[in-house]
Amino acid sequence: MQLTHIDDHGQAAMVDVADKAITIREARAEAYVEMKPETLQLVTQNQLKKGDVLAVARIAGIQAAKKTSDLIPLCHPLALSKVSVDFEIDVEHSRIWVLSYCKLAGQTGVEMEALAAASIAALTIIDMCKAVDQDMVVAQLCVTHKSGGRRGTYQRASKGDNHE
Length: 164
Fold this sequence. Notes:
Layout: E1 23-34, H1 37-44, H2 53-66, H3 68-71, E2 82-90, E3 95-106, H4 111-129, E4 137-147, E5 154-155, H5 159-162
Antiparallel strand pairs: 1-3, 1-4, 2-3, 4-5
Helix pairs in contact: 2-4
């Protein structure tokens, strides 16, 4: 297997996607923010001074997906047709799962955009809650699904399949 972002001289390079077919490409990613139970309760009851944590995190995640090529140097700027960020509250483990989805019709995949959305939404949750909980952790950031392109479909066991 050869890395795609390395040229013939071993230098970092942007992949040329001009000859790739335009296909519908989708990706899903996830991560979770673990926090104290008291913090999770404040979030779910919308009682934090900074405002609606999940609404702000959702917008931040969507913005991050749209700005991925500005953040990751060799990513192509993409005309995303859909970005969504959703949350699942896991009271038992005191976690908020962040689930992102990105879609486009294009010549390159949207995995990095989905990862950017999930990670920035998770970081925004921390930013919104850090005044009451400094022990929060972001974990298990990963792509759970991708489709479209030459390599076809990839499916990883997702939140509902592999967690305690």
